Amino acid sequence: MTNNNPRNWQHDAYDYLSIQEYEMNADHIEYFRSVLNEELDQLLTKAELTIAMLTKPHENEVDLIDKASSQANQAFNLRIRDRESILINKIKESLVKIDNNEFGICEACGEDISWGRLMARPMATKCIKCKENEEKEEFRKGH
Ligand SMILES: [Zn+2]
After folding, report:
1. CA R_g for the chain
2. How far is ligand 1, taken at its centre, from the CA of residue 18, in Å?
3. Distance between CA 114 and CA 106 in Å, rounded?
4. Which in 56, 76, 86, 127 has the greatest CB count within 10 A?
5. Ligand 1 centroid from CA 46, angstroms
6. DSSP H or E run through 129
7. What is the average pLDDT across 68-73?
8. How far away, in angstroms, is 131 Cα from ligand 1 center?
9. Residues 69/101, Cβ–Cβ less than 8 Å
10. Are 121 and 32 in contact (CB under 8 A)?
11. Confidence of residue 90 (pLDDT cuts 50, 70, 90)
């Protein structure tokens, strides 16, 4: 009997295999496509809510204290929206990669991104080694 439920794949030995070794087939690609689409839908719904909140007129604008706190709230919402829009773009990029048969390939070294990494983070564009190197580099630059 084969394990046809993609949600179970991450619990087995395939965790440690690269996609090539696992031979990612059309079903797997479609699984990642649906996961990415689901996440995109959720983020877009959330983004719409944030924008609705930002454009809603504030009732207590006359009160200076309330005004200050509502501005702080807006800044906070904008920061969240920034993070979300970065994520939204990443997911869109991953969906384009799926269409171009480039999904699961590291942008930096061209090697396969491991199966376990894609299961945990389907929008990953770099393999774990390149990601770690990048983070070390950023850490060095920031200090
Ligand atoms: Zn890499």
Report:
1. 20
2. 12
3. 9
4. 127
5. 32
6. helix 128-142
7. 76
8. 7
9. no
10. no
11. very high
Summary mean pLDDT of the chain: 79
**Better-scored residue on pLDDT, 47 or 40:** 40
pTM, full prediction: 0.68
Task: Find, among 105, 125, 130, the residue nearest to 20 by Cα.
Answer: 105
Concatenate the DSSP letters of all residues of 47-96 into one string: HHHHHHHHHSPPTTTTSHHHHHHHHHHHHHHHHHHHHHHHHHHHHHHHHH
Structural domains in the chain? 6-142 (1.20.120.910)
- Cα–Cα distance measured from residue 45 to residue 39, given in angstroms and rounded to the nearest whole number: 10
Between the CA of 12 and the centroid of ligand 1 the distance, in Å, is 23
Phi, psi angles (nearest 5°) of residue 114 = -65, 155
pLDDT (mean) for 91-114 = 93
Extract the tokens encoding 35. 């996961």
Q: What are phi and psi of 43, to 5 degrees?
A: -65, -40
Residue 115 CA neighbour count, 13 Å, CB half? 23
